Amino acid sequence: MSPRSSILSTADARRPLVAASAVTAFARGGYHGTTIAVVARDSGISPAYVSKLFPTKERLFVAALEECMTRVVEALERGADAASSQDPDVVLDAMGDAYAHLIADRALLMLQVHAQSVADVPEIGAALRAGLESVTTFAKSRSGASDAAVQRFMAYGQLCHLIVTAGIEQIPAHWATLLSDGITHPG
Amino acid sequence: MSPRSSILSTADARRPLVAASAVTAFARGGYHGTTIAVVARDSGISPAYVSKLFPTKERLFVAALEECMTRVVEALERGADAASSQDPDVVLDAMGDAYAHLIADRALLMLQVHAQSVADVPEIGAALRAGLESVTTFAKSRSGASDAAVQRFMAYGQLCHLIVTAGIEQIPAHWATLLSDGITHPG
DNA sequence: CATATGAGTGACTGTACACTCACTCACCCC
DNA sequence: GGGGTGAGTGAGTGTACAGTCACTCATATG
């Protein structure tokens, strides 16, 4: 243990930390709207080193997205484990609540929306599909719900994304409450 | 450019044409990923003149989004008019089919996804909310369906956006068909 | 014809950004 | 203590792009 200001780490140890910073940074500005310099600042390292850890911006975004989708599945898992019964609809509901709780800070939600926006970049599209596959298959197999119920689960998840990104939950008009009704918000 | 080939028009007549080009251009690359020069080329005018017609890129995007949302409502209207009965659920279904037909070329769909992505830009967020308000209120009032049915209509619309942007419809796996099932695709 | 008005542009400016490279320095093993 | 390996950076480079401006020219009217 050197008492020195040894901030040295291994590249392999640093990469996931940078990916975690990238999640919040890209969530804020999207793919094109976020610079490597911002991710570097959030990570406490130089832009040059970010580029060394992730050879292209695209790869950095993919790493962030993978991190994001992993956290989503973990949240669903925790929700399912905490369900009051193992009835498929109850489990699915519990997953929905867990998801709503997870995205209270908006970062994981926004990143998914941004990813949709640039899914035509092949590597990003592939990562998005992989993430959706794990979410969907997990929701289906863990809950044991019908295909239709899982589809509905995902559909209302997407509606939730729209409500948050567009800021609909703060609108008092009837059309807005109609959309938000029953969608669990962050406190 | 040779003065012969230039066809003079009024700025007010040209603006909507440029907005229409902007719809497809922004749909392709999103807000940050699309340059004014691209819109200019698609419109057959110079970048400088695009900037004269729309003083900022932001305003240009807003114009495109407004055009987009207007076309969506018009499509819903046509769908409702073509419904086989005036039963609320039937009308809503007909609107869904009309929407699916409208977004066959993906441009109007992609633009909405891109708009979500940059909805934190105040003017764009406002335009998005305005568009969603007109879609939602129209769907509700024209169909006469329950709030819950309209909410479901919108939720599955969002799921449709996800399916198309992520390219899920081409995946033969079960998780993918589960999501796409019953969502009308373009031929 | 003379002059005004407005459409439309070429050339430019300032800036921002992804990525590179030569380099420094910390740590480890002898 | 000396040399090798890899962490980490400062200073660039090339490029792309939003917005500006002085200008040309077409048309309209007296």
From TrEMBL, chains A, B:
Molecular functions per Gene Ontology? DNA-binding transcription factor activity; transcription cis-regulatory region binding
What protein name does the entry list? TetR/AcrR family transcriptional regulator
Q: Which UniProt keywords apply?
A: DNA-binding
What InterPro entries does the annotation carry? Homeodomain-like_sf (IPR009057), HTH-type_TetR-like_transc_reg (IPR050109), HTH_TetR (IPR001647)
Q: Which residues bind DNA?
A: 35-54
Which part of the chain is the HTH tetR-type domain? 12-72
Q: One Pfam family from the UniProt entry?
A: TetR_N
On the tree of life, the source organism's domain of life is Bacteria
